[in-house]
Amino acid sequence: MNSSGNMVFMRHINGKPIKIKAAEDLVRLNNYVFRSIYATANVYRRIQRVEDLYEWGNIAYCTPTWDIDGELKNWRETIRIAREILRFLDERGVKESVYVKWSGNGCHIHINERSISKGLLEKYNPLDLAYAIVEYVNTKLSLKSIEISSNGKIKVENKMDPARVFTCPLSLHRELDAVCICMKPHELKYFTPEWINPQKFRHNADWRQFRDEEADRLAEAAYKAVGGYPLKPKRRRRKTRPLDEQILEWLRRD
Prior knowledge:
Distance between the termini: 15 Å
Mean pLDDT: 84
Shape: globular
Number of helices: 5
Low-confidence stretches: none
Order of helices and strands: EEEEEEHEEHHEEEHH
Structural class: alpha+beta
Strand content: 5-15%
């Protein structure tokens, strides 16, 4: 939100990616008050210029993530679908490195990106692996998800792409009075919407836990079955300014 009270989504300021180095940076940065904080699905080797975010070879890790989108009133159906994904992962040995993040209307299931070994990440691009894992599981469970979501109002999507961002743990939702909370898989069956209440939220700080190489077998199987991210970015020079900078200029004209 800028000084005029307008809600704005920002990735960078003055041609440089926004980086949070200390807690006080969250309060005010360049006269902007932040309600919701997002982070990239990619972990980068360097973040100095906007162009760094779009260099394929600059991605060191990428977090495989399932988006389970719906409305909060359908939270029970959302949980049922999430538990099917978690069951599938568990059966393939991915247990300790998984966490669930409830961000508002729906939830995300994440595999800790560091549970994929360095050897595998040297063999394949991290985003290729993350995309393949999510797509592979979605394909295997598509009929089951449709059966659970009979009203068609809950979708499980693969949104892995070079610019993907997700709400950070303990951030407020951009619109709802809700806190983005994390839980480990065994806690999901106990979840209720009260857990995301800003006045009495429930959050598991152990969401960062993972086991080395735990996701390797699934990652290799997924890549062999699906392949990598289908829309590889082309190297090109930006001819126009970033969209968020253009929006800010337009807002200042009011």
